[in-house]
Amino acid sequence: MPHTASQHQTATDRPCHPCRTKTEAGFTLVELLVVLVILSLLAALVGPRVVGYMGQSKVKAAHIQIDGFQTALDLFQLDVGRYPLQSEGLDALVAAPAGATGWAGPYLDKGITADPWGAAYIYSADGNGAGFQLLSLGADGREGGDAENADIGN
Q1: What is residue 97's DSSP assignment?
Q2: DSSP string covering 23-84
Q3: Helix, strand, or coil here: 133?
Q4: How far, in Å, CA of 20 to CA of 60, rounded?
Q5: Segment 48-81, tens digit of pLDDT
Q6: How far is CA 127 from CA 79, 82, 114, 124, 148, in A?
Q7: CA 11 to chain centre
Q8: Over the stretch 77-133, which tens digit does the pLDDT of each residue have?
């Protein structure tokens, strides 16, 4: 019996996947809603923790910066015999203030940086340079507070 052309199908003539009807194509609305609910639950669980870690890391960064400033201020005190005066501020760690004999700086490699929230550190010194206070007001930029909003100082 002779074979006709329609009886000879090659591998390229056959479809690579079973035929689907229009109702079977894509995802159902229920499947999409289930995926959205799962993603929302994950975001609700993970989101607050990530935000909390970011706040804690800024507080830790402020402590590290203050420790670096304190070390530089102590070196200044060893060389000059006093801490920078209120009028000289932290700039005395980068450029020699007038009348500071023995200054061997700069004491900071990267200059004066802002706190992790972008505000300037508050430097206050005793009148004669015998002591100092270095402070960041935290995330809220106001005195007092707790957690991330707490004042951070030496």
Answers
A1: P
A2: TTSS--HHHHHHHHHHHHHHHHHHHHHHHHHHHHHHHHHHHHHHHHHHHHHHHHHHHHSSPP
A3: strand
A4: 58
A5: 777 666 667 888 888 889 898 999 999 999 998 8
A6: 19, 11, 24, 9, 31
A7: 58
A8: 999 888 998 888 899 899 888 888 888 878 888 878 888 888 889 998 887 777 888
* Nearest-angstrom CA–CA distance, 33 and 27: 10
Place of tokens 């009028």: 87
Burial code of 69-96, b = ≥16 C-beta within 10 A, e = fewer?
beebbeebbeebebbbbeebbbebbeee
Task: State how far the alpha carbon of 86 is from the alpha carbons of 66, 114, 125, 138, 141, in Å.
Answer: 17, 18, 5, 22, 21
In the chain, what are the helix, strand and coil shares in percent, each to the nearest 5? Answer: 40, 5, 50
How many other C-beta atoms are found inside a 10 Å radius of the C-beta of residue 62? Answer: 24
- Residue 153 corresponds to which tokens in the numbers above? 């100082």
Distance separating alpha carbons of residues 32 and 13, to the nearest angstrom: 35
